[in-house]
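Try it yourself: sequence plus S-adenosylmethionine, in.
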Amino acid sequence: MHPKHLPLLCCPDTRESLALEPLVTLENGTVYAGHLRSESGRSYPIVRGVPRFVERQDYSASFGWEWSRWPRVQFESHNVGRPMAGHTTRMWERITGMTDDDVRGKTFVDFGCGPGRFLDVVRRKGGIAVGIDLSDAVDAARANFADDPDVLIVQADLLRPPFREGAFDGGFSIGVLHHTPDPQQGVSALARTVRPGGWVACCVYPKGDFYDFPSVARFRKIHHALSRWFEYLPALLYSYFAAYVLAPAFRFLKNAGLRRAIQYVERHWLVALWLKDPQWRVLDTFDAITPQIATTHTEEEVAEWLITAGCESVQRTPWCPTSATSLKGPVHVIDVLPMAPASGAARVSIRVAA
Ligand SMILES: C[S@@+](CC[C@H](N)C(=O)[O-])C[C@H]1O[C@@H](n2cnc3c(N)ncnc32)[C@H](O)[C@@H]1O
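Structure, out:
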């Protein structure tokens, strides 16, 4: 971590400020090893450049494994000239609804950053990027941004985030909260870290979609039963088989007129996911069948979480029904009438933090 990020952090238990005690500082000024200490005596180690507020990955361990195996597959720089080029940026823009001007020079937090593909989008748009993740994915994220002092990665539970209230200009959580025991608390925690008037966006699995298929539920059960003996090997082998054999075969058969039959098989029996790039198919199949917690939600639930968390102007975004963006309240909307009404200029609404 770079010492300039210290004011963003606080003790997740007591909310006290933390003092930084560096042991090893790199040439670019980032602290590679050291401690963060609170006045009441709590101490959190900085290990390999990452402040660690938890000792275990808990239910997120599969993600630690996943992201150490595929740390850059979904990064734009890895996809130049490949079939999924532009996907990660488009996804972030459609889910958050933010423009480049909303990002430039501002500080954003990503709740459940994984290896940091969306932190990378924020950085490329000129923002300062802070990521929190419970799993060892933080080591992949740190490696992805090692030389960048405008990125801070912390290993912590997003349900008890080590961030000061209102520390960020905006925050988002994409594909994460449904993997926690309490998504609503996750939204509240996210909103608390954003200043009034700042952006809060989240996206979770929608009900009735792929992640709700009986086949996916069954494969998760099989993975959890087998993982006691074989860890991630069966899930990994199946993901390669599904990505390179099943998904292309199913696509061929669907185009050959067997769409309904294949859809039935996909829904009830065999997990197969079509994406243009086979590397993405392997990753997303593995990602679907290995998590310990995976719930699905409705548009109404997401809107209610945001409103309960004190957000205003909640809007569904075009990515999926359970993707929404909002502004952290209180926000005043001021209607400004044009100076000369006869000019025909439209009424303009300006949002300002109360
Ligand atoms: C499917 S991945 C999504 C990663 C990233 N948002 C992306 O789309 O590339 C879900 C991530 O949420 C993290 N996660 C799950 N529960 C968490 C928690 N309680 N606190 C912080 N991170 C958590 C996992 O470790 C994992 O990296």
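One thing you can check immediately is this: The first strand starts at residue 18 and ends at 25.
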